[in-house]
């Protein structure tokens, strides 16, 4: 890559060479970021346009089995598609859920990962919004800007979105293959691959000044939790809130409640080691349900003199969904489901809703993909949004199974493992 920099910018190459002589050894990620912020894009990638790229990917061949680092083939982008060099990707609980818990086991073999950031390597025919070298975040929630849903301010859904639906056509549409087999592109993204191909409507262009190994987390968890508070619930200044589950989504919900000027934010989790980070992000109270003999909803009702104005379930547990609803104040309380599950149905006595509580849910925090992600990256660059605090480990792609095990076992003090997987 240094040879490419020398050809593209002799002055920049001279600066790097001088720094190296002084003992500084830049890695691949640093050089990519430097090129992006300098307005350059290394021609090594551009030379691959129109060709099949062979690269590394973490492949899930079977349900609940370790991922395997394989050489995969990534086909050139087709009509209205973009091929992206993934610079960094988060490891999200949704990846773990579909790998180890989901009842739909027809999705294998697959390449997981959906919370990433990278650089456009090449574009397919008909692409007008992007050029090679653009810094981007791939989206699992597309925004075509043309359908009736995209044109409505009432939703962030798009008629082109799949929302977790998987069938045979999902494999047919994949541009990633290994050993002669098509691999499912999880949520249309597959960021556990060094390169991936996504639809133009499923990519957000972001400020090239943004550090990709940080803002990749905006591609899922941070938008989901933060948006649940500011977009879906529309938390009001001076209100009281309760957030159930302090993973990355829950912490982002806490942060969103603080941004909306809530006066009391109760963070709820059975792991007290998560409480300190919750306080950093805005929690005013912390509660461990295991410290109480009564149901947690009763505890919160008593703490608040009748229930909170807003509550958020950020786990994907149907029993906790009911607890969150019943923690709300009668008459006006709003409870938002932000945690994902498709294994069980949720329920609650009708009187809980008949007395004025509202029960709703959110995907991606109500953010329209392209618009919302660019907006959140801008907020981070303006220091209005905390992101760095969510990252607990930085690992290479070939350490992805270590990341999965850390998330499974919950052995770490930080609330949720967020790994930047890069070379």
UniProtKB/TrEMBL annotation:
Keywords: Metal-binding, Oxidoreductase, Zinc
Record-annotated membrane-spanning stretches: none
Name by which UniProt lists this protein: Alcohol dehydrogenase 1-like
Cofactor(s) named in the record: Zn(2+)
GO process terms (BP): formaldehyde catabolic process
Residue ranges of domain Alcohol dehydrogenase-like C-terminal in the record: 248-370
Pfam family, one: ADH_zinc_N
Lineage, top ranks: Eukaryota, Metazoa, Chordata, Craniata, Vertebrata
Cellular-component GO terms for this entry: cytosol
Superkingdom, natural source: Eukaryota
Family matches, as InterPro entries: ADH-like_C, ADH-like_N, ADH_Zn_CS, GroES-like_sf, NAD(P)-bd_dom_sf
UniProt GO molecular function: S-(hydroxymethyl)glutathione dehydrogenase [NAD(P)+] activity; zinc ion binding
Family: Belongs to the zinc-containing alcohol dehydrogenase family.
Keyword hit for Metal-binding: yes
Annotated ranges, domain Alcohol dehydrogenase-like N-terminal: 79-206
